[in-house]
């Protein structure tokens, strides 16, 4: 026992009554409890085992064995200890107690826990994400190959393990792996076996700093590309439908020779007015119209910016050599125009579209009559 007392391993002995009879310096150091505080105390009180009540007493009936236990240290920390226990016999060969020799396995236990956690995380990824996770050694040989996406490709986990990337794929398909083996992480999108795929290549360095493995993630982009194309087609269809709706809601009609009418209906905002301005001005030039009627009978309200646009539109029509006429202004629209202080003195405004058409026809016939007399 004198030799064990100086052992670098923790040495603890207790009797039939579970009272501690030996507690060496290594035990004091590792468990954070001095020998003076330990000797004479029941081991099940000093080192309780909540996960296995009555363990220390049961060891009295075992000849030998090993247990891994987690203990609270005297300084408030915790440690994991692997205890090799041996039954102590008295001179008559009967059980007198238990000798426990323990080694600190805290680091090993934590490493094992971390490894198990990492394995669980990896398992969660490969089982639930539609990807392939793989690894290869420095020669390009697959050492790991798994992932949910394998099922859709008609492959099984581990199918390529032991096979070499450079034998399976064409040279341009292994550029990413070659780059990672040189120590450079890389992400690319490429075609493989006629399918678009996205790859991540991550070099893994050994203790000497050399790249001895590459971990990769491969994502099949076929479905996402198809969904992207469908989305683009839908957006294009919606845009075309919106364009048709805008054209139907603001039709430019030639109601008489040289007379265009634009009946506006619904909500008129600045964006819609700007589009109308462009379409109407082009129509004036194209048809060489002399008059352009902007009928606001179907418009309940306009914002302040829109009201300014309408006035600018009439002035722009005049610059093209035609006359812009506003008809059907409602009281709410009139109030907006007045509140802005817009000058409509140079703009012809009439009560409705009928009055506006009558005005244009009269002007057209009057001009024709004067021309005939000349």
Relevant terms:
Beta-Lactamase; 374 residues; 5-stranded antiparallel β-sheet; 15 strands; 41% helix; Transcription Regulator spoIIAA; single chain
Question: Any chance you could write out the topology, listing elements then pairs?
Answer:
Elements: H1 2-5, E1 10-15, E2 20-23, H2 25-31, H3 35-38, H4 43-46, H5 55-58, E3 64-72, E4 78-89, E5 95-104, H6 106-128, E6 132-137, E7 142-146, H7 149-152, H8 165-168, H9 175-181, E8 186-192, E9 195-205, E10 211-220, H10 222-249, E11 253-256, E12 259-265, H11 270-287, E13 291-298, H12 304-319, E14 323-327, H13 331-340, E15 348-350, H14 353-373
Parallel strand pairs: 12-13, 13-14, 14-15
Antiparallel strand pairs: 1-2, 1-5, 3-4, 4-5, 6-7, 6-10, 8-9, 9-10, 11-12
Under CATH, the homologous superfamily of the largest domain reads: STAS domain
Q: What is the typical, i.e. mean, pLDDT? A: 86
Radius of gyration: 45 Å
User: Sheet with the most strands?
Assistant: 5 strands, antiparallel
How far is the first residue's CA from the last residue's CA? 141 Å
Extract low-pLDDT stretches.
none
Quickly give the structural class: alpha+beta
Helix run count: 14
CATH topology of the largest domain: Transcription Regulator spoIIAA
**Count of spatially separate domains:** 3
The residue fraction in helices comes out at 40-55%
Tell me what the CATH architecture of the largest domain is: 2-Layer Sandwich
Describe the strand arrangement of the main beta sheet, using strand numbers. Answer: 2-1-5-4-3
Sequence of secondary-structure elements: HEEHHHHEEEHEEHHHEEEHEEHEHEHEH
Outline:
elongated
Strands, count: 15
């Amino acid at each position: 026992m004198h030799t064990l007392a100086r052992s670098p391993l923790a040495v603890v002995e207790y009797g039939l009554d579970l009272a501690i009879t030996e507690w060496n310096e290594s035990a004091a150091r590792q468990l954070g409890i001095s020998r003076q505080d330990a000797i004479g105390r029941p081991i099940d009180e000093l080192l309780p085992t909540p996960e296995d009540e009555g363990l220390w007493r049961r060891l009295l009936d075992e000849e030998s064995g090993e247990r891994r236990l987690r203990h609270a240290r005297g300084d408030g920390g915790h440690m994991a200890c692997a205890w090799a226990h041996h039954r102590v016999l008295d001179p008559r060969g009967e059980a007198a107690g238990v000798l426990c020799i323990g080694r600190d396995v805290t680091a090993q236990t934590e490493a094992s826990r971390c490894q198990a956690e990492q394995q669980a995380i990896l398992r969660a990824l490969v089982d639930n994400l539609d990807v392939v996770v793989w690894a290869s050694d420095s020669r390009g040989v697959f050492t790991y190959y798994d992932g949910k996406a394998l099922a859709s490709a008609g492959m099984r986990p581990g199918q390529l393990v032991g096979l070499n990337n450079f034998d399976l794929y064409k040279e341009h398909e292994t550029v990413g792996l070659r780059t990672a083996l040189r120590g450079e992480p890389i992400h690319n999108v490429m075609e493989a076996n006629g399918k678009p795929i996205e790859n991540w290549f991550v070099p893994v360095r050994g203790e000497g700093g050399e790249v001895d493995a590459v971990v990769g993630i491969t994502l099949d982009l076929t479905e996402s590309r198809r969904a992207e194309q469908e989305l683009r087609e839908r957006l294009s269809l919606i845009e075309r439908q919106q364009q048709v709706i805008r054209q139907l809601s603001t039709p430019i009609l030639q109601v008489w020779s040289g007379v265009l009418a634009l009946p506006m209906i619904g909500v008129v905002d600045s964006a819609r007015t700007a589009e109308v301005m462009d379409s109407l001005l082009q129509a004036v030039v194209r048809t060489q119209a002399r008059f352009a009627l902007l009928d606001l009978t179907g418009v309940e309200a306009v914002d302040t910016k829109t009201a300014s646009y309408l006035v600018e539109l009439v002035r722009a029509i005049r610059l093209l050599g035609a006359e812009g006429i506003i008809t059907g202004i409602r009281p709410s629209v009139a109030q907006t125009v007045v509140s802005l202080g817009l000058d409509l003195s140079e703009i012809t405004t009439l009560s409705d579209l009928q009055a506006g058409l009558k005005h244009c026809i009269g002007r057209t016939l009057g001009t024709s009559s004067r021309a005939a007399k000349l």
